[in-house]
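This protein record is not my work; I was only asked to verify it. Where you disagree with what is written, explain briefly why. This is what I was given:
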Amino acid sequence: MTCNGSYRAAVILKQATENRKSMLQAPLAFKYVIAVAMINFVNCYAPRLHLPVDVPITRDHIRFLNVSPLYRGHYSARLQIENYSFSFSESMLLVNHLADDGLVSYGIPMEPHESALAGMERASRMKYSMNTNDLYLVASNYLFKLGVDVAKMEKTRLLKVNKYPMFHSDRGWVSNPLLTVEWEDTNAVGYNPFRVMEVQVSAVSGDLLHITDGSYFKDKEQPFVNDMDKLASISDDEFLKYSTLERSNLLVQFAGLHCTNMYYPGVDEPLYFRTNASGHGPENTNTKQN
């Protein structure tokens, strides 16, 4: 390796080490506020979306809760309640309906160890309860219930209804069992995996399967969590000394939450825990989650 190459390698190693250190410095106060804000969000919006989720959420409802370490002012987090997964970042909201084994659902019960392709094939052979005539109305209604101004959003986004109408099955091309509406951001510059707002439903069951909105919290007057630097500056030692009232005040100050009857993850239990969707054994990571 040349001297120049050695120097670059040393810089990369140093940067990786610094990145690792910064990722390990996720304050407890930050994790606490994010976790409670996620729980509050699901308590509020799951009923509006008519998801079969019991609210208010308790500890027993949670199958997965992860608040990732703060990294250069950015965060990501995910909460799974029953078979619904909710992922969050500064602007992004991602909702996924999962099968019982933790895999992405196609709106039908999945067989044990069934592959995604096999599940799609089996779904395509079933009677469809939903068609494209109702698709736009259903998809836009989901966004409306999430507080999205659909009419305003469509002024800057290109609407695409059922962009992929066909599925290549063992029988040849058939109607796709996954129905999707997309709103593409025409103002986005360069590659952005979340430039498309997407709602996906099952043609078989009509169930909501997936929502992606890469600008959801960015477009809100009240951000999901605000003043991130100040929140991250609260040391773990300081947070551990906070009374219940002081922790409640954190939720008011940084997430706009005035909570009275909801589950609070305590500091004596981990904010990060993981099981598979059925609650037994190691988690199956073959999902669309981040």
Q: What stands out?
A: Residues 140 and 150 are 7 Å apart (CA to CA). The chain has one domain: 26-274. The chain has eight helices and eleven strands.
